[in-house]
Design goal:
The chain is an alpha+beta fold and 510 residues long. Strands 17, 20, 23, 24, 25, 26 and 27 form a 7-stranded mixed beta sheet that branches. The termini are far apart. The relative contact order is 0.09.
């Protein structure tokens, strides 16, 4: 009897997947729930587990594109019993390990991480192939187009890696196997070996985590050009943490010129003469997050009637208010009083007065929201992410500031969940923190508008018939002209300006 295995439904907008890689060969004996291959969609990678035990017959090869419901492979269930019997006889020496391992193989597949996520990328392995892992121990880190999450072991045993770092896996795709019965065989096999007593101390002092950098630390070290292996890790089992990376310096680069002080001047004329040593190139694969962001930004430019309107805000009233109450605010609420809470409150008031700016297009219908879920653009190590402040219209200044601090911290550590980054109705982005004076931000689809903040610059302005110097900020509102007219967009931005230049209006709702 053959069991047909077909591509499952992985998301509303996903119609086809690509076979990434097979972890089992045609004709192999597979166990129930064992990961067979990885399937990739345009959003995520997931594992494809076996739905029965038996002999695998592959129907779709690596690189083949298969529609949802299409046949991937078949499993001959009737052949599972006879084929498993001769296996111990073929390898009598390994009988003690083989009898326990096949019966206890646990296949780990890519879990469902969100409705719209169909594939993920295996960022890095935290355990090596053949390592002993324990239940719930983090063994790998996986990237989707929206977030990074950790993959815990689903059993205790010997890890057998199936997917490699950088592989794109579909939801349900096979990542690895854990030989549950192999946890006892591994130490007993090493015990009688004469070299085991010498190797044992090394494995206890240095394991998979030693010298391994976390995602945030890897980003920082890459920017500094420092190999992770040269940094002493203070994390668990010697793992390099974000703090280690921030405090690390490049000793090799600094030591080389110091050791050969005369070599540098000698090499300089040659470099200047040829001019060839500075012409190097480096290539790296785009992450799933970067590819998805790129695709969506291009789609927004092509599919919306995007237009940008500008205004300027005198920031002196807010700055005076912050200077007056920031110490008391922080002492009472335990969080600093920043500009974002003022902008968020002002935006929420304006959105409720001009609901079209808070709406979106769904097919031939306009969807108006009576709530304000404000997305805040955050620059994370792996790219731009946009976590959401839910029901911001009902939050106080301190609640908004606390939520921004919480979401920004999770973004920097790549710990944001899919739920925390979906469902926003309006976006605020602050390019001013990087020194931007003016920009035309791109709409965060399916939203219809985005507010761009910029740097604060002291400029001369006319005030009450006199020229005075004031801290000014340009504001930019990009909007979809299909749903938002010029009257609504300009009036919305003017209302935001009015509330920011007289922040007491926010207190009284006028």
């Amino acid at each position: 009897m053959s069991k047909e295995m077909r591509v499952p439904t992985v998301g509303e907008s996903i119609s086809e997947v690509t076979v990434g890689q097979w972890f089992k060969k045609d004709g192999d004996l597979v166990q129930l729930d064992e990961v067979l291959c990885e399937l990739e969609s345009d959003k995520a990678t997931f594992e494809f587990p076996a739905e029965a035990s038996g002999i695998l017959r592959i129907k779709a090869n690596v690189g083949d594109t298969v529609e949802i419901g299409g046949l991937v492979c078949t499993i001959e269930e009737s052949a599972s019993a006879p084929s498993s019997a001769p296996a111990p006889a073929a390898a009598p020496a390994a009988a003690p390990a083989a009898t326990s391992a096949p019966a206890g193989i646990r296949e780990m597949i890519v879990p469902t991480v969100g409705e719209s996520i169909t594939e993920v990328t295996l960022a890095n392995w935290l355990k090596k192939d053949g390592d002993l892992v324990t239940l719930d121990e983090i063994i790998a880190e996986v990237d989707s187009d929206k977030a990074t999450f950790e993959l815990p072991a689903e059993a205790t045993g010997i890890l057998r890696q199936v997917a490699k770092e950088g592989d794109v896996l579909e939801i349900g795709g096979l990542i690895c196997r854990i030989e549950v019965g192999g946890s006892v065989a591994a130490p007993t096999a090493a015990a009688p070996a004469p070299t085991a007593p010498v190797a044992a101390p090394t494995s206890t002092t240095e394991n998979y985590a030693t010298g391994h950098a976390s995602p945030a630390a890897s980003k920082i070290l890459a920017e500094k050009g420092i190999p992770a292996a040269t940094v002493a890790g203070t994390g668990k089992d010697g793992r390099v943490t974000k703090e280690d990376a921030m405090g690390a310096s490049a000793p090799a680069a600094a030591t080389a010129p110091a050791a050969n002080p005369s070599a540098a001047p000698a090499a300089s004329p040659a470099v200047m003469a040829t001019g060839s040593t500075a012409r190097s190139q480096r290539r790296e694969k785009m992450s799933s997050l970067r590819k998805t962001v790129s695709r969506r930004l291009v789609a927004v430019k092509n599919e919306t009637a995007m237009l940008t309107t500008f205004n300027e805000v005198n920031m002196k009233p807010i700055m005076d208010l912050r200077s007056k109450f920031k110490d008391q605010f922080k002492e009472k609420h335990g969080v600093g009083l920043g500009f974002m809470s003022f902008f968020t409150k002002a935006v929420c008031v304006a959105l409720q007065e001009w609901p079209a700016v808070n709406a979106q297009i769904d097919g031939n219908e306009l969807v108006f929201n009576d709530f304000c879920d404000i997305s805040v653009a955050v620059s994370a190590p792996k790219g731009l992410v946009v976590p959401v402040i839910r029901n911001a219209e009902n939050l106080s200044f301190d609640q908004i500031e606390k939520e921004i601090v919480r979401l920004a911290g999770k973004a920097r550590d790549n710990k944001l969940s899919i739920e925390e980054m979906t469902g926003g109705t309006f976006t605020i982005t602050n390019g001013g923190v990087f020194g931007s004076m003016m920009s035309t931000p791109i709409i965060n689809a399916p939203q219809s508008a985005i507010l761009g903040m910029h740097n604060i610059v002291e400029r001369p302005i006319a005030e009450n018939g006199q020229v005075v110097i004031r801290p000014m900020m340009y504001l930019a509102l990009s909007y979809d002209h299909r749903i938002i007219d010029g009257r609504e967009s300009v009036s919305f931005l003017v209302r935001v300006k009015q509330l920011l230049e007289d922040p007491t209006r926010l207190m009284f709702g006028v």
